[in-house]
Amino acid sequence: MTRLLILRHAAPLTGGRLAGRTDVDADCSDAAAFDWIRARIGQIGRVLSSPARRCLQTAEALSMPPHATSQALWEQDYGAWEGLAYGDLPDLGPLPPARLARHRPEGGESFDDMAARVLTELRGIDRDTLIVGHAGTVRAALSMVVGPAALSFAVAPLSLTVLRRAGDDWAVEFVNVTAP
């Protein structure tokens, strides 16, 4: 059995703007939360990270430097939406999860596009691994179990999600666990 621990980076310092591929810093000031998450993760043999600065800073604050980074683990590219204030993002209205997963912002990628590259990376993991990534990384991993309904999961900053694999079958142990 292989365990995949996915930690969303600490709160991004975006000034209230969408930062998918925009490289921003993380707020790594909550030492108690980092201590709690580090204890929850425990001993892990391999750490893999998105190359985003916010992910690398989170790994450093955990004292768990990545063994490698992967371009495949970058957050979704929101194209024309990058840098928009959250209140200025277009309202797509109610969409079924599968249709929302296919929606591609102008000049960007859909959730399905992002998940395809992330899942290629995740499916190649053959030992217990901690991934320091993004909300999209977590949802992509969850999509291996629940499909496009993964878009409905909340993924808080500095939250831990754990999946396990036996053969080709993935199961969810827990999602979005944060320090008390």
Automatic annotation (TrEMBL):
Protein name, UniProt field: Histidine phosphatase family protein
Source species: Paracoccus maritimus
Superkingdom, natural source: Bacteria
